[in-house]
Design goal:
Blueprint: H1 2-7, H2 10-13, H3 17-20, E1 23-26, H4 39-62, E2 68-71, H5 72-78, E3 86-87, E4 90-91, E5 101-104, E6 110-113, H6 118-128, H7 134-141, H8 146-155, E7 160-162, H9 166-171, H10 173-179, E8 185-190, E9 208-212, H11 217-226, E10 231-236, H12 244-250, E11 254-258, H13 264-275, E12 279-282, H14 296-302, E13 307-312, H15 327-334, H16 336-343, H17 358-381, E14 384-390, H18 391-400, H19 418-423, E15 425-429, E16 434-438, E17 443-444
Helix pairs in contact: 4-5, 4-17, 11-17, 15-18, 17-18
Amino acid sequence: MSHDALRTLLPYAGWSEEYARTATFTGGADPVLPTSFRLGETSAATLAAVGLAAAELWTLRTGREQTVTVDARQSTASLRSSKYLRVDGEPGKPEHNEVMGFFPAKHGRWSYLHCNFPHHRAAAMRVLGTPEKRDAVLKAVAQWDAFELEEAIFAAGGAGGMVRSMQEWAQHPQGAAIASLPLMEIFKIGDSAPEKLPHGDRPLSGIRVLDMTRVIAGPTCARTIAEHGADVLKITAPHLPSLGYQEFETGLGKLSAHLDLRVAKDFETMQGLIRETDIFVQGYRPGTLAARGLSPEALAQLRPGIVCVSLSAFSHIGPWASRRGFDTAVQAVSGIALRQGALFPGAEPGPQFYPASAVDYLTGYLMAFGAMVALARRTREGGSWMVRISLAQVGRWLINRGEIPDAALKGIPKEFTAEELERWSMASDSPAAKLQHFKPVVQMSETMPRWTRPAAPLGYHKAVWPAR
């Protein structure tokens, strides 16, 4: 089934079925974890596409081909790799804030509140008029119509949503807008001469990636590109909130620097970095960076030949195009959480998240795949390129892969074996801590993916490119 999922990705790269057959899948079939959604085949297919894209760049460099192998169990485990992070021997991932999650609302409906970031939590509490206590939030949400609460929280600058069925989402204006889009788009946004890949002994050696993303999906994209030899520089600012443990998990292979784009000097530094950038990855809502003069078109003028990778929550079209969103919010509004809760009830009744951050990590892998495909096109034909995708588009792709029959959903282990987790893990020394974390999943016959830099705390490095 992983080959079937991979076939849906071939058109985005212009690859033949014959080329796709150079990917080998091991590790069995779905279900891998307790969910009806095909996390095993989609994760394996997506990572195989990443490997094939890296192999194509290697062929452009050397004329040599190589094979790609992906284990479906390991790729599924990578969809929740932050769960297995250890920082100085301790679990890196804290529990969700107590006021984050599903709450019953009026008329038998459910509301989801996203409250892990302080400003989103504060927005929800302002709307509800309650302190940050779960019992108080339960009572307050119960007095709200779920749709009205959804609108009020978005208007207040928060995130979350009314829990919907798949059918309701398909009929919603935003669900319909997303259904009109492909899984992802790769298109030219400017003209420039073809560029040879820099010298090096890895598929992306010498390629410079500017990572302007946060949380999981975008940072996973840049981390995945780093696995194949690129120099990745993550840019964030001290005033932006973050969940520190995630930076150790998604920061592997990267440099990390602080710039505040509200400050003229820092903005000039950013422009200087962009002039020497090959791939620019951003995860802000549509139009946010354009308002600061950093639209894809402006970037292509500043650096002809740039590859712009753009991530949003709910796509660039439709009434929700400017809304904040996360993997969990996509699960809530698109019917995934309602279906998961029906098949695998939790300790309390109601919707449930599936047992991995699948939309986040799948999106990150697809972004990396798209970036490498666009880079290969720049090498062959020149031009500046745009890769555009959203969490909601990936959620739709996952749903459209179909569900595992109910009869096959009995007795599925909730966890991987200790031997598997040990085999898939490695240790590294961060400047701040000793880490235990997952290895790269993709196996390649000539250029095995690896990280050459440890994960560093945000802002640890200077905002300069390393020498090629």
